[in-house]
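User: Could you check the structure of this?
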Amino acid sequence: MSWFEAIVMGIFQGIAEFLPISSSGHLALLQHLFDIKEGNLFFTEMLHFGTLISIFIVYFKDIARIIYEFIGLIGSLIKGKRVHKLTRHQWFGLLIIIGSIPTALIGLTFKDFFESLYTSIIPIGVAFIVTGFLLWIAEKKGNEGKDVKDIRLLDAVLIGIFQGIAIIPGISRSGSTIVGGLFRGLKKPVATEFSFLLALPATFGAFLLGMKDVAEGGGAFINGQLVLGVILSAVTGVFAIKALIKLLNNNKLKYFSYYLWVLGILTIVMGFVNN
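Assistant: Sure, the predicted structure tokens are below.
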């Protein structure tokens, strides 16, 4: 992979991971255009690690509070203290854990299937179109709904399933989890925050699996281009998160639908032409 390719893919990852247009789909499309054959899934997941850093930067205070208070909760339970009511951050932490379980099960069970989808851009084009329809439907949702304290464990499980399905290249992770949250009645700001924080365990888990591939010599390796791509994805990811929050609050999701429908059709046509 050239330095130019690493720069382009790193920037695209940072933008597409948080804007609801599917980073994995865009990276797979770029890999196809640049004719990059090796390490597709590993390089993609490593760039996801860059956007993991973005979430920590934007939501550092909330993440630190969740970790601190959740550890305190565990300590209280170990000491045999009765916990009558969880704080907002303790409940948020529990929801993130519960929501991560279906994501992990889907990712581990269908890992080979998801990786096989990178061999052709036609299913990616179809997934772009599906994501566009999901965003179009979500656009109709109002801003009234559940706050964090009102979210039920079932809500977290279902949103986690949405995140697991988003492993398919072309299905936006941020888009699908935000849509899942809105379908379950969450307020838009709450659905957005939960979407980003729910990404932390999944992204970190995918990163660890990538490191396992490196240790086993599975064709994945770290070089300067990869490091540069990770840094660029982290920097651009910060700006993308803040941009999405503004766009979501201003009901602008439909514009992403238009973009994804056009891109999806072009991708499918390109796939058939090149076959």
